[in-house]
Design brief:
The structure holds two protein chains of two kinds. Chain A is built from 15 helices and 19 strands. Chain A is of the alpha+beta class. In chain B, 46% of the residues lie in helices and 9% in strands. Classes of the chains: A alpha+beta, B alpha/beta.
C-alpha cells in the first residue's frame, strides 16, 4: 500500500519535479483514447533506468501496482491504472542513446516519439518502418509494449521485426538485458519476443536496440476506386498473390472518404463505395513494375485507377489517412468517435467475408460503421461515432462491438491486430486463445508473482 | 458562455495529436499541460472536480494559440473549452492571482495595465479626433501605453484616409475574454462610441484586439488589421525598396485564428526580402504571451518565446511582427536580431 513516507522516498529518487500527487494531474492520467478509466495514486516521470528499478523495487516490496505509460495514445486502456498505484510516465526518457548505422541499428530510450526518431534518422538515410496513425505522438516504448504497426506492416511487418534487444526492469526491480546487437541470435528463449507486446504486464522497458532500414529511393501511391468494399477486398487478395508486395495497402469506405474530404478538402477523393490506397516503394524500376502490376490487377474490379501526381499529394493523403480514426468525428457535430471493437484482424482470404459481416452488423444495430484499415494484412478498423450523452447509443455501440469481436474470432481472426488487448479486450482472450491463455497466466505468475505490473490487463 | 458545453468537451477523443503540437506541453511535459489534459480537466470541473491551484494552472497555462485546434483531427475546440472553463470557475470565485489582478486593473483603469493617464496622450493634435468618420483606429492598450511613438506614426499614416480615434477608448476586452473574466463594461463603452462616430470599419494594429473586435463583439462592424488596410493603399504610400532581409512572426490571433497571412507579407515583400521562420502561416509557433500566460506565468512565457526565437532563419536583419504583445514577449526572449513592428519597417521604407 502506498503511504506518505513511500511517496517521499520515491520523490527523493526521481526529484521533486518528476513526481505528482496533484488530484488534477492524477485525473489527467486516468485514461488513454479508450473508454477505460482508472485513477493512479501517484504519477512518476523517471529519467533513468536505475530510477525505474528503484521505484519498482519499492512497489514490489509494498505490493503497489505499477502501470507504465508512453504518450497515452492507446485504444484499449493498456496504460490505465485500473487498480491505482503508480503510473510511470516514461515520456521523459526520450534520448537516442546510440546511432550505429554500420550495424543498421539505433539504441533508444522508450519515451522517444516515433516521428522524432524518424526525423533524427532521415538525414542519415534510414528509417524505422512501423508507422501507426499516432506516429506524431506515440512513443517507441508504447509501440514495443503493444507490438504496434500501422500502414507499412503489409511489407515491413510489425514493431517486433525491429526489436533486436531490450533492457527491462522486472517486477522485483532487477534490470535484465534481452537479445543482442546481432541480427540473429538463438541463445536461449527469446525474451525479447516475450516482452514485445506484453503491454507492461511482465516488465518495464527502459531501453531498446532497434533495427533500422535504408529509406527507399522511390515511392508511388495508387488510388483505386470500387463500387463496394467487397470488390475492393477481392482486389486486395488478387494483388497480394500477384507477386508484388506493396508497402501499404489501405481501404477507405464511403463514409471514411467523406471524413477525409472534410478533414482536408483539397484532397477531393472520388466518392466511391470504397477506395484502396496502394503504395509501392523501392528502386525506380521496382516501383514502376509494381505500379503497372497493381493497375493491371485491379482492372475489371475497379471503377477507376490513378497514381498520385507528386510527393505533395502523396504526403497529404497519408497525413489525412493517419488521422482519419479521429476525423470521422467531424462528420456529425453531435457525435464523437468511440474506439471500441475497432481493431479486428482476419486471414487475408476472409477479408471480403468480414467486410460483409461488418455491414450486416451495422444494419442489425442500425449503427453506421465506417471501415478503414490495413486491409493488406487483414487488419480492419471499424469506426463508430455516437452521441456521447445517449445511454441507448452506448448500449448499441457496445453490443455491435461485441458482435464484431466474436465474428472475427469465429472466422479464424483476432480481436486485436495491432492496438493491443489492454482491458478493453481481455474478456475475449479465453475465446480466442483457448488453453494457451493458461500458459500466459503461468508465465505472468512466474515473472510477476505479486501481480503488481499493470494488473487487470490481457486476461492474465 | 457560463455553462461548460459537455458535448463540446466530449468531442475530444483523447488521441493525443495535441501532445505533438502544444508548445506549453512541450515545455512542461505533464499531461495536465496538454490540450487533451485540459479537456479532461474541463470535464472534471463540469462534474465537480475541485478547482484547486493545480486545476487553475492547467487551465490558465494555455496561450489560446489554437495550434491544437488547427491540428485536431476530431474537430474539437480546446481553446473555447479552456476559455469557457476559466469563465465557469471565475463565476464560482475561483481564479488565479493574475486573473484577479487583471480584473481589478480593468475595472479601475479600463485597461489591464492599470494605467490611469490619458489614453491618447501620444496624440499631438487633439483636433485629429473627428466627431464622425467612416473608419476608426482602435489603438489598444499596448499601443497607447507601451508603444506610443509607433502609435503616433501609425495614426499619422492612417488619418490621411479618413480615420479617427475613439475619444474615450478602453481596453477591447481581449485579456478578459481569454481569461474568463467579464468584459461587458469595456465592450459596451467602446461600441457605444463607435456607433456615435458612425464608422463602418475598425482598424487595429494588435492581433489580440483584432480577434476580439472581430469575433467577440458580435457587431456588424468590419474589422481590419492595419496591415490589411495599408496593403490596400500600397500604391499611395510610395515605399522605397530596402536592401535588407527580414523574417515574419505570424501572431496566432491574426494568422491562424483569422487567416490574415497575406497582407503583412504583401507589405514586407513590396519593401524587402522575406525569409520565412521555420514554422509559419497556419503552423506558426506561438510567441508565448497570449491567453494571460505572459502575466500569469512569466517564466513559462519566456521559455516559449525563446523556443520561437530559435526558429529565426539565418541571414535576416529584423524579425517583423504585427502585434505589440508578440513583439513585447519576443523581445523578452533575447532575440539575436531586433524585433520590429511591420509599421516600423514601412517607416524605414518611407524615409
Amino acid at each position: 500500500m502506498l503511504n506518505v513516507d513511500l511517496i517521499e522516498k520515491m520523490r527523493t529518487i526521481v526529484g521533486k519535479d518528476n513526481l505528482s500527487v496533484a488530484t488534477c494531474e492524477l485525473y489527467c492520467y486516468s485514461s488513454d483514447a479508450s473508454q477505460i478509466r482508472g485513477i493512479p495514486e501517484v504519477v512518476i516521470k523517471p529519467q533513468t533506468t536505475v530510477q525505474v528499478s528503484d521505484i519498482v523495487s519499492i512497489a514490489y516490496e509494498h505490493d503497489i501496482p505499477v502501470t507504465a505509460r508512453g504518450a497515452g495514445t492507446g485504444l484499449a486502456g493498456g496504460c490505465v491504472p485500473l487498480e491505482g498505484g503508480i503510473v510511470l510516465d516514461m515520456s521523459g526518457m526520450d534520448r537516442i542513446v546510440e546511432m550505429d548505422f554500420d550495424n543498421l541499428q539505433v539504441v533508444v530510450e522508450p519515451g522517444i516519439v516515433q516521428e522524432k526518431l524518424n526525423k533524427a534518422l532521415e538525414p542519415y538515410g534510414f528509417f524505422f518502418p512501423p508507422d501507426p496513425g499516432s506516429s506524431a505522438m506515440c512513443t517507441l516504448g508504447g509501440l514495443i509494449a503493444n507490438n504496434g504497426s500501422g500502414m507499412r506492416s503489409v511489407k515491413y511487418g510489425t514493431t517486433r521485426s525491429y526489436v533486436l534487444g531490450l533492457e527491462v526492469v522486472m517486477a522485483d526491480g532487477k534490470i535484465i538485458r534481452t537479445g543482442s546487437k546481432t541480427m540473429k541470435t538463438v541463445a536461449g528463449y527469446s525474451l525479447t519476443d516475450l516482452m514485445v507486446g506484453s503491454e507492461g504486464t511482465l516488465g518495464i522497458i527502459t531501453q531498446a536496440i532497434i533495427k533500422v532500414r535504408a529509406i527507399p529511393k522511390e515511392r508511388s501511391v495508387i488510388f483505386a476506386s470500387f463500387d463496394s468494399p467487397e470488390l475492393a477486398g477481392k482486389a486486395v487478395v488478387r494483388v497480394l498473390s500477384s507477386g508484388i508486395v506493396p508497402s501499404a495497402c489501405e481501404i477507405l469506405d464511403a463514409n471514411i472518404i467523406r471524413a477525409i474530404n472534410t478533414y482536408d478538402p483539397k484532397l477531393g477523393l472520388p466518392l466511391a463505395g470504397a477506395i484502396l490506397l496502394f503504395e509501392v516503394d523501392g528502386t525506380e524500376a521496382e516501383v514502376k513494375e509494381g505500379v503497372d502490376l497493381i493497375v493491371k490487377t485491379c482492372e475489371g474490379l475497379a471503377s477507376g485507377v490513378r497514381t498520385a501526381s507528386d510527393k505533395k499529394e502523396r504526403d497529404e493523403i497519408w497525413a489525412a489517412r493517419r488521422l482519419v480514426g479521429a476525423a470521422i468525428s467531424r462528420l456529425d457535430p453531435m457525435r464523437t468517435r468511440v474506439y471500441v471493437g475497432e481493431d479486428v484482424g482476419v486471414p487475408i482470404k476472409e477479408i471480403p467475408r468480414m467486410l460483409r459481416k461488418v455491414d450486416e452488423i451495422s444494419k442489425e444495430f442500425n449503427l453506421p460503421i465506417m471501415t478503414y484499415g490495413h486491409i493488406g494484412d487483414g487488419n480492419l478498423h471499424t469506426g463508430m461515432c455516437i452521441d456521447m450523452l445517449s445511454d441507448d447509443a452506448w448500449k448499441k455501440l457496445n453490443a455491435a462491438a461485441d458482435k464484431i469481436h466474436r465474428t472475427a474470432i469465429e472466422i479464424g481472426g483476432t480481436v486485436t491486430a495491432e492496438h493491443g488487448v489492454g482491458s478493453a479486450r481481455s474478456e475475449y482472450m479465453r475465446l480466442e486463445l483457448g488453453n494457451a491463455l493458461d500458459v500466459m497466466i503461468t508465465i505472468k505468475k512466474a515473472l510477476d508473482p505479486k501481480g503488481i505490473l499493470n494488473p487487470g490487463k490481457m486476461g492474465v | 458562455m457560463s455553462n461548460l458545453d459537455l458535448r463540446s468537451i466530449l468531442k475530444c477523443v483523447r488521441c493525443g495529436t495535441c501532445r505533438s503540437v502544444c508548445p506549453v506541453f512541450e515545455q512542461v511535459g505533464w499531461e495536465s499541460a496538454s490540450s487533451r489534459g485540459r479537456m479532461l480537466v474541463a470535464h472534471g470541473v463540469s462534474q465537480g472536480l475541485e478547482a484547486d491551484q493545480d486545476v487553475l494552472n492547467s487551465l490558465n497555462t494555455c496561450t489560446t494559440c489554437g495550434l491544437c485546434e488547427q491540428m485536431c483531427p476530431s474537430g474539437a475546440s480546446p481553446v473555447q473549452v479552456v476559455q469557457d472553463a476559466r469563465h465557469h470557475l471565475v463565476l464560482k470565485g475561483r481564479m488565479t492571482d493574475a486573473q484577479a489582478a487583471l480584473r481589478d486593473a480593468a475595472a479601475l483603469a479600463g485597461n489591464p495595465l492599470g494605467e490611469t493617464q490619458y489614453r491618447h496622450a501620444w496624440l499631438e493634435d487633439a483636433s485629429d479626433i473627428k466627431e464622425h468618420a467612416p473608419y476608426v483606429f482602435f489603438v489598444g492598450c499596448l499601443g497607447a501605453y507601451r508603444y506610443p511613438e509607433l502609435t503616433r506614426r501609425t495614426f499619422d499614416l492612417l488619418k490621411k484616409f479618413d480615420v479617427t480615434l475613439i475619444p474615450e477608448e478602453v481596453c477591447c476586452g481581449s485579456p478578459l475574454f481569454r481569461t474568463g473574466l467579464d468584459p461587458d463594461a469595456l465592450v459596451s463603452k467602446n461600441l457605444e462610441q463607435i456607433k456615435r462616430i458612425g464608422a463602418h470599419t475598425i482598424i487595429t494594429g494588435c492581433a489580440g484586439c483584432y480577434t476580439t473586435l472581430k469575433n467577440d463583439y458580435h457587431s456588424d462592424l468590419k474589422v481590419m488589421h492595419v496591415s490589411e488596410f495599408l496593403a490596400e493603399h500600397l500604391q499611395e504610400l510610395d515605399l522605397k525598396h530596402l536592401d535588407i532581409t527580414v523574417t515574419y512572426h505570424d501572431p496566432c490571433h491574426l494568422g491562424r485564428c483569422n487567416g490574415i497571412f497575406d497582407a503583412p507579407r504583401q507589405i514586407i515583400t513590396s519593401i524587402c526580402e522575406l525569409k520565412e521562420m521555420r514554422s509559419h502561416h497556419e503552423q506558426s509557433r506561438c510567441c508565448g504571451a497570449g491567453g494571460g500566460v505572459l502575466k500569469g506565468y512569466p517564466d513559462l512565457s519566456m521559455a516559449l518565446s525563446k523556443k520561437r526565437l530559435e526558429e529565426i532563419p539565418g541571414g535576416v536583419d529584423y524579425l517583423v511582427t504585427s502585434c505589440p504583445l508578440c513583439r513585447t514577449n519576443l523581445k523578452r526572449g533575447g532575440p539575436k536580431v531586433e524585433v520590429i513592428d511591420i509599421l516600423d519597417l514601412m517607416e524605414m521604407a518611407m524615409k
